[in-house]
Amino acid sequence: MSGVGGGTATRTTRPRASSSSGLRRVLTLGGVQVRHEVRTYFRAGDTVFFTFLFPVVMLAIFSTAFSASGPYGVRPDGSAVDAAAYYLPGMIAAGVLLSGVQGLGVEIAVERSDGTLKRLAGTPLPVASWFLGKLGQVVTTSLLQVALLLVVAAVLFRVPLPTDATSWATLGWVWLLGLAGSALLGIALSRLPRTGRSATAVIVPIALVLQFVSGVYLPFAQLPTWLQQVASAFPLKWLAQGMRSVFLPKSSAAAEVGGSWDLAGVALWLAVWLVAGAVAARLAFRWGRRDA
Question: Among 62, 103, 128, 142, whose CB has the most other CB atoms within 10 angstroms?
Answer without folding.
Answer: 103
